[in-house]
Design brief:
Elements lengths: L9 E6 L3 H14 L1 E7 L2 H11 L4 E4 L8 H10 L5 E5 L4 H10 L3 E4 L4 H12 L4 E2 L4 H4 L4 E3 L5 E3 L2 H11 L4 H8 L3 H15 L4 H10 L5
Parallel strand pairs: 1-2, 1-3, 3-4, 4-5, 5-6
Antiparallel strand pairs: 7-8
Helix pairs in contact: 3-4, 7-9, 7-10, 8-9
Amino acid sequence: MVPHPREELFSVLVVDDHPLLREAIAARLAQMGAGTVHEAATVAEARARASATGPCDLAILDLGLPDGSGIELVTELRNHGWPRIVVLASSDDPYAVRSAFQAGAQAYLLKSASPMVVTDGVRRVLEGGVYADPSVAPVLATGTRVPGTDNTPRELSAREVEVLQLVADGQSNKEIGEELSLSALTVKSHLSRIGRKLGTGDRAQMVALAMRAGVIR
């Protein structure tokens, strides 16, 4: 596998209590261009590694760690400046999925996922996006109310949700317009309205807010 140019020589912390799984993940990340892969088996080890290395480009962690909460670890890493966190979990429990995104994770992947799905999820996060394993997408695809910057729910129209989903899929305004039979200017207008409702004009932040609220997958 040839590393993607934007993914070469990134640093990663992998946290999981199963040595073989950590080794497999590390090998996959090396194929994707990881320059440094740190490993930890527990919350305590992860905290020690994080303190020693400072924020890496990416953290991949399990929620079911033997000595503490993986969700709390996600929150801690985000609060300490870690920019990208991928959760790799055994459970597709709706509470766990939503809690992970609310804590600040950019992706939720299942350990039962194929290597290609894991690679796609990691790649999406490295490129600044968000990702949910296809198996947990139905958990997130409910409701159309998203909290604004003042935590007041804002109602998104069905069309705005469609546009935002295509943004999450990595499509440009032109591609979205072609998909929905709209002009690029109309797509831009939809994104402006979405931005006002969500309190941000940044495409990645709009997607992250909508995904964490369960509006899009």
